[in-house]
Amino acid sequence: MGGQLSEGYSMTWVRLDDSFAQHPKVMEAGPLAMAMQVAALCYCNRHLTDGFIPRSVAPTLLNLEEMPYRWKAVVDVLIGVGLWEQTKEGFLVHDYTKYQWTRAQVEAEKVANAERQQRWRDAHSNGVSNGALTDA
């Protein structure tokens, strides 16, 4: 899944098939929509949203200030080709949980990592440098 950054925090990784850029939906959507799709996947993984993008977040996924496009036009393309679905509160990346880890999976992995690290510490404690501090 991801690498361990520090105790209690597990970094998630976005999974992209090596043929992602040549997927028919992605090719039909075009490079700008592909960039927004990747940005959306990163957002969803970072915030553990299970593929949900709030309407207020969608405009912030890409900086389109210098481009002749507006965020809504790009989102409409993503919806049109079937990469995103519109919801009442925002958008959902189609089949997100089929390819990315869910919030529940990430949280379970964090617990498992913490338990594994504690078992290792317990097994390798020498009572001096790794042991509990005591009053002298």
Quick structural gist:
Helix content is 43%, strand content 11%. It is built from 5 helices and 5 strands.
Could you tell me the radius of gyration in angstroms? 21 Å
| Strand order within the widest beta sheet | 3-5-4
Count up the helices: 5
What class would the helix/strand composition place it in? alpha+beta
Q: Give the terminus-to-terminus CA distance.
A: 44 Å
Number of strands: 5
State the helicity in percent bands: 40-55%
pLDDT averaged residue by residue: 85
Return the domain count.
1
Q: What is the makeup of the main sheet? A: 3 strands, antiparallel
The residue ranges in which pLDDT falls below 50 over 5 or more consecutive positions are 1-9
Could you characterize the architecture of this molecule?
There is one protein chain. By secondary structure, this protein is an alpha+beta fold. 43% of the residues lie in helices and 11% in strands. The protein has one domain (17-120).
List keywords for this structure.
single chain; 136 residues; alpha+beta; three-stranded antiparallel sheet; two-stranded antiparallel ribbon; 5 helices; 5 strands; 11% strand; elongated; disordered N terminus
What's the layout of helices and strands?
Layout lengths: L3 E3 L2 E2 L13 H6 L1 H17 L4 E3 L16 H10 L3 E3 L3 E4 L2 H4 L3 H22 L12
Antiparallel strand pairs: 1-2, 3-5, 4-5
Helix pairs in contact: 2-3
